[in-house]
Amino acid sequence: MxxxxxxxxxxxxxxxPLCLTQNRYGRAIETVAEDDPRRAxxxxxxxxxxxxxxxxxxxxxGFYFNADNCIACHACEAACSExxxxxxxxxxxxVGIVEGGTYPNATRxxxxxxxxxxxxxxxxxxxxxxxxxKFAEYGAVLQDPDICFGCGYCTWVCPYNAPQLDPxxxxxxxxxxxxxxxxxxLKPACAAACLGKALDFGVIENLPAGRTQARVDxxxxxxPSITQPNVxxxxxxxxxxxxxxxxxxxxKYHRDDANGAYRPMLDPKHGVQREWNLGKLLGSHENAHxxxxxxxxxxxxxxxxxxxxTVMFAPLAELDGGPAxxxxxxxxxxxxxxGMFKLNMHLGKPQRFYRGFYNLKYSxxxxxxxGVSAFFAGLAGFTLFAIFDEQWAAFGRVLCAALGLGGIAxxxxxxxxxxxxxxxxxxxxWHTNAAFIGxxxxxxxxxxxxVALAMGNLNPDTESFLAAVAASGLAxxxxxxxxxxxxxxxxxxxxxxxxxxxTTYGCAYRLRNVLLGGSLALALTIANMDxxxxxxxxxxxxxxxxSAVLGRALFYVLVIPTTLPGAFxxxxxxxxxxxxxxxxxxxxxxxxxxxRHHAFKLGEFLETLRTTTWKDKLAQVRRVFTG
Length: 627
What we know:
CATH architecture of the largest domain: Up-down Bundle
CATH topology of the largest domain: Formate dehydrogenase/DMSO reductase fold
Number of domains: 3
Low-confidence stretches: 597-604
Structural class: alpha+beta
Largest sheet: 5 strands, antiparallel
Strand order of the largest sheet: 3-2-10-11-12
Mean pLDDT: 90
Shape: globular
């Protein structure tokens, strides 16, 4: 347990003599009733059995930030990092900057923020490993990095960038509210260290002495309705009509004269020139997601056609049991295996992949994993039974087809749902549904068409039908793209994403659209021809594949999350990129690390097994699977 000093100053001690019963969201501030059995299962900090006698121990606590007083000294950041022994490239609390106006009336505010220990913690619901818990004690949302396997989904869904994915260790950590200090009557380290009395802490809705406001919005703070955060603000100084971020994100905050609130708007910081940037586009950290989603969707589309399609549509009947039957199935198993392997190796701790099933109750990631796993099992079983012609094999194929189709429906639904999150407006649009379903309809039939062509099992009617299905998928994605263009009118980070799409990656985006339109025209031409020929089908496959890869890469690289403004260097995406490109990241004091979190490398693991004794081999396997 944290040991309080005898001479702790009064400003570092908790002081909440009176408390309200409800917060502004209508929730009870008392986290559990006095007779609730959860009080008997008390929080044990560092395995210490001592329990505090704080009368407000079971009330929701939160931070109070007075922007008028913050001088950006970063003492709160330093105290937090020292308390939690964070490396230089991580900070649970950070200070961002927004500024506006012109000399001599320039204005600036600094915003210090960490985890808000929300009433509706989306990180807890999104985490597939159940690494998060919202405790009755103080209402703290705590995360266990030992359970985390480094998928980073909590960093996607959190609007405030509170969970921090360590690119070196491959695990997430975050603010723990300094519950060990709270137990002995002290405020968190950050609040106790604040020089300007800007940061305070206590039972939520309690107004500290000398303060006049308890707002839930401030220029640069994301929409509080997403998670109902337990943080309150004061900001009374008059600000400029437009307050801009000082980091590289092309956003500013414009004051609505009707209610005085500041709304995010586009701030075109680097002009309107279109660029290619193919290296950045195709070298994204999310390439594993590109491979997995495209592979899974292509195989899902092909499986639908090979199972339901061969029964429902006469042009596909020739594929059932024909020369292309088994090769198509084996290729589908191989593609899905590669996609799932790439996605697993993308985890910070891929040896703990099995923990992805832990949160089926809440997490769309867990449900997607379950659905795709069921689909893979059904596909593998269907392929195995397809080798045999006996009656029992036919019955097995029916069962495996049902399992696979159920996996497609369940996993596909949650594959889309996990991207429809308010914290990422670029994804939170029905264009995501259209893109994923369209990819399945476009890539699936072309996969079957290629195999059938190679095996001499492709007649003109089948070719026309497959091209028509592909055309429907391409048309669906195209319609979604047209609807997605309305992002530039929105007052959120989606407008900034659309701006980056039109400038930083403008040439690649235009090429993708040209390829998509050309693919659709060619697919419709093949669908309406009696015999298009192998050259036309091969060209269509190439155009669709290139368009799909470019589109999916843009999907991941363009998303701009709703997060707090950064500073000139710290938490500035532009500076992080610059530091990694120039080698500044080699100096730990810069606060930027290279992504080295894939500690588990298959080649190194196999080489270790090859060169060690059996005793050491068993020890290595045990270390990998137990962490």
